[in-house]
Amino acid sequence: MAELGADGFPPELVDQRIESALNKSKQWLLIGGPPCQAYSLVGRSRVGGINNGDNRVYLYKEYLRIIAQHQPTVFVMENVKGLLSAKINDEHIFEWILRDLRNPSSLFPKTNSYRYKIFSLSYTPSDYIDEFPSYKENSDYIIKSEKYGIPQRRHRVILLGIREDVSVSPHILKQKVNEVSLKDVIGDLPKIRSALNREFISYSIINNKKKRQYKQVKDSYKTWSSTINTYKDEICTFNGFVNTDCSFQLTTNEHGRGSEFIKYDTPSDENPLKDWFNDPRLNGVCNHESRAHLTQDLKRYLFSSMFTQKYKQFPRLHEYTKFCSELMPDHENANTGKFADRFRVQLPDQPATTVTSHISKDGHYFIHYDQAQCRSLTVREAARIQTFPDNYLFYGSRTAQFHQVGNAVPPYLASQIAIIVKDIFEANSLKTKNSVTKRTK
Amino acid sequence: MCRYEDVTPNPEYLIKSVAEQGYSLEAALADLIDNSISAVADKIEILIKTAKEPFTLILADNGHGMDEETLKKSMRFPCTSPDNPRTQSDLGRFGLGMKTASFSQTRKFTVLSKNASSLDYKGRTWDLNTLTDHGWKLIINTQEEIYSMTEEYTKMSNEFLDPFQNFKPNTIIIWHGLYKYEEYLEESNRSAALKKEITETTAEHLSLVFHKYMEDKKGPLKIRLNNSQLEPFNPFPVQQSDFRPIEPKHRKFGPDYFNLEGYILPNRSIEESKNAGNIWTTTHRSLIDMEGIYIYRSKRVIYFGGWSGVIKKLPRLQLARLKIDIGNGVDNLLHLNVAKSKVIIPHDLKDAIKSYIEELKAEATKEFFNKGTTRLTSEKCKNSSLFVTTPSSKGMLLELNTDFPLIRQIIDNLPKNETAKFTLLIKMVNTQINKIKHTHDDTDFQCLAEEEQKTGNEQLKIIMEIVQNSGMDKNVVRKELLPMLGYDISSLPKDIIGVLYD
Q: What domain range is A29 assigned to?
């Protein structure tokens, strides 16, 4: 492991590592790119010279330097969608990045590097300028993952760079006819309940700060089900729930809160990604354990999942006040509208919203649609949404596990991109061979 | 020593002639839908590009799809033996339907399919040109070809209005070109002819043929045809109180049974059927187009509109419809052709149907000329006529109107124990009137429809009431009163008969 920009890991050492790994091979692939924060200062660095003191700028510059120095055949770089619209001093950062990537030696003249053709993976170029692809819109570089079989509306900018001497035009990703819904990929996991940890009692203002008092709650299936059933009966008396079916039964205690491994027959034959997730040796599911929540939060979860069931959309925060002010989170920002969709039930028949690493902080944004389970999503459910195969295990604290899940490029999407890249390498080696045989003749 | 000569058929000629099995566009589509239903699809999308030639037709369904091996098998000619027993829900028979139906309309078609547990389709294509050049060879579609076809499908599906929600097709059939519309018509007429065909004939045909599936409460079948989702059309609107059944018959036929149910449309339907959107006919058909036999196999209409050669069509029979339900087990006895467009009814069955149709014919003719009595039942004059008519399986029955002011008055003024006697009298009058009416009509009349429906217990109650309230001798009740009310003593249950004897 090596961390770019860390102390004791200078560029010379980076070069050394790369060179020994490449072993003089000229055909290689560079995957990954600098984090989005690195770009926020790009514009300034262009205008005012690159300031090595800022670590994030350093990462961007170092990335370009590696391309210029070692000239990979192909590079694939991913970043958030916001990169396209980000502006500094009224200049689009993205334009600068494209220019830098197309000609990395402009920043490092000594390297005299090849230039790069930057392709989109979702559209074919609208035009070529001197064999360099161009697109109508910068948004053509966005990959909408739900179109490619990912059960998630994750929109990312992915750039495919091909060295200018490689005259292969890449395929684009093939859109799937069917969108994969959330229920398709998590509906076949064992049903587990959430757990209780504490109950909010009251707050008092001490030194101008809210000080909340909680009571610890001892968790058991009995207390959980009686607490939730009480909430259920209460919610059923709310105005908007007159004709709601309140006869549903809470999840049984068969799998309890779940665990790091549950013996279970999953994925099912109806799971459209079964072949992708399935490892028959597993005979079960890993990292599927629910979290413990504040009892008041569970009430909000139950309310919002029942609301979603009835109205086919999740309730916005103002709807909480409409039904029962007690449901409102006791939060300074709650009334400001900033957090209007703070509690979000993921709809069963659609792809989920983007799984981010902040899913680790609280589950409010990822509430399970199944009211009978009344909980936020587990690590395995988040992993299914991200299309990690079931045999991919996550280690560490739950927070660390959620981070690993949320920060990834969905593996199923990555594999589709890998096939495109593989085709580039194969087509290229075929061309080189042919031209060699021609020459010998 | 035998000598043989090779007469392997020319595949091109064979296919071209096999395809001419009497398939119309709607019949060919209905055959593809049969396959979708057998695969438990509940949503079927039919998209036809009429704007530009070649006209492309796509049918997509969400039934359980096929893996590559099954797909390959299903593209074979034929893929199952017609003698194989089929499940009740299976609508195919020859294992030829999808192929011949497709080749009857197009010269090249592709089937893309996948399991629910996968996202990527496999594809196979039959192309008459390949057959001509290479013999019996099926084209295995490449990933690129499959992609460009699914892209075309998605594009068409999005361009038309009223799409399905949450629709996930597993099988997609593509007809590349509809040669009957491209080759046999003037260029300027082609697109218009096809459009008319789709919106009128095809839509109505499918609405009728699959109406039972579309009306299913648990899992209704939904069919989208270009811009709209089809509404079911039921040719037997039994919820109409004056849409009148005649007594049904149950006949054993081969290993299976079938039901004959005759219905008479009310006279008012003649006038109403002239308006679009009426309940008696589909928009582009008349009552006369729709008279006759309707044969249902499983829940699908396999034949309708006409008497299948049993009797001739007649304008005065336009109010008669006959429903025949048959099981899957007997359709080989019915001589159904591949296109399911033609049914030949075997001789002995024809006789049985014929005698039933005679009854139906008589009732239909009567209703056709019976303009006056229907007027009686209209709301307006409900209280002002002495007699009202009620439909029953015995035909229209005349009854004294108990809401007629004078009768009402008498009933209201009578003491309670006398009321029972009076209503008894009215019942007797009703029975006698209808007996007289039917003597003129030359049919046998036994009892009132009302009593017919009642269970033994209720009958017993009524008869006990008669014995107690009429103050008559049990002997008289048995011999005079009950026959007058329309009861046949010998047909009464034993326990009731016991009450009537001392």
A: 11-176+413-440
C-alpha–C-alpha distance, residues A361 and A397, integer Å? 12
B210 CB-side CA count, 13 A:
33
A151 and A268 part of one domain: no
Candidates A150, A175, A178, A413: best to mutate against B (most CBs of B within 10 A) is A178
Nearest Cα residue in chain B from A179: B168
Q: Are B311 and B247 in contact (CB under 8 A)?
A: no
Is 0.85 exceeded by the ipTM? Answer: no
User: Which residue in B has a C-alpha nearest to residue A150's C-alpha?
Assistant: B119
**Residues from chain B contacting residue A349 (CB–CB below 8 Å):** 165-166
| Low-confidence winner among B171-180, B356-365, B488-497 (lowest mean pLDDT) | B488-497
CA distance B432 to B398: 10
Residue A411 has a pLDDT of 97
User: Residue A90 maps to which CATH number?
Assistant: 3.40.50
- Distance between A269 CA and the closest CA of chain B, angstroms: 5
The answer to whether residues A145 and A189 belong to one domain is no
> Is residue A83 in some structural domain?
yes
Question: Would A391 be classed as within a structural domain?
Answer: yes
Find out whether B248 and B259 touch, Cβ atoms under 8 Å: yes
Judgement on whether residues A165 and A56 belong to the same structural domain of the protein = yes
How many independent structural domains does chain A possess? 2
Q: What is the DSSP code (8-state) at residue B349?
A: H
Q: Model confidence at B215, in pLDDT bands (50, 70, 90)?
A: very high
Predicted pLDDT of residue B384: 67
Option in B118, B143, B154 nearest A272 (CB) = B118
Would A6 be classed as within a structural domain?
no
CA distance, residue B93 to nearest chain A CA (Å): 28
| Strand A91-92, strand A87-88: pairing | antiparallel
> How many Cβ atoms are within 10 Å of A181's Cβ, its own excluded?
21
Lowest mean pLDDT among A33-47, A200-214, A354-368, B276-290: A33-47
DSSP string, B174-223: EEE--HHHHHSS-HHHHHHHHHHIIIIIIHHHHHHHTHHHHH-SSS--EE
Model pLDDT for residues A293-337, shown as the tens digit of each residue: 888 889 989 998 999 988 888 888 777 777 776 676 665 545 555
By Cβ distance, the residue of B119, B150, B165 closest to A273 is: B119
Q: Where are the domains of chain B?
A: 11-229, 244-369, 373-500
Q: How confident is the model at residue B374 (pLDDT cuts 50, 70, 90)?
A: very low
Whether residue A172 sits in one domain with residue A33: yes
Residues A395 and A417 in one domain: no
Interface of B with A in 388-427 (CB under 8 A): none
Judge if A41 and A158 occupy the same domain: yes
Q: Which CATH architecture has domain B244-369?
A: 2-Layer Sandwich (3.30)
**Residues of chain B contacting residue A151, judged by C-beta atoms under 8 Å apart:** none
Any A CB within 8 A of B166 CB: yes
Please answer whether residues A280 and A287 qualify as being in contact, where contact means their C-beta atoms are separated by less than 8 angstroms.
no
Q: Do domains B11-229 and B244-369 have the same CATH topology?
A: no
Residues of A with CB under 8 A from a CB of B: 149, 174-181, 267-275, 349
pLDDT tens figures, A15-35: 999 999 999 888 999 998 887
Homologous superfamily of B11-229 = Histidine kinase-like ATPase, C-terminal domain (3.30.565.10)
Nearest to B117 among A176, A181, A269 (CB): A269
Model pLDDT for residues B142-153, shown as the tens digit of each residue: 998 999 999 999
- At residue A441 the predicted structure's pLDDT band, cuts being 50, 70 and 90, is very low
d(CA B173, CA B68): 15
Chain A residues lying within 8 Å of B172, measured CB to CB: 177
Please indicate whether, in this complex, the C-beta atoms of A176 and B120 are within 8 angstroms of each other: yes
**Are residue A219 and residue A344 in the same domain, yes or no?**
yes
> A178 to chain B: which residues are within 8 Å by CB?
119, 168-169
- Pair A330, A228 in one domain: yes
Q: In this structure, is residue A1 part of a structural domain?
A: no
- CB of B330 closer than 8 Å to CB of B255: yes
Structure confidence at residue A30 (pLDDT):
95
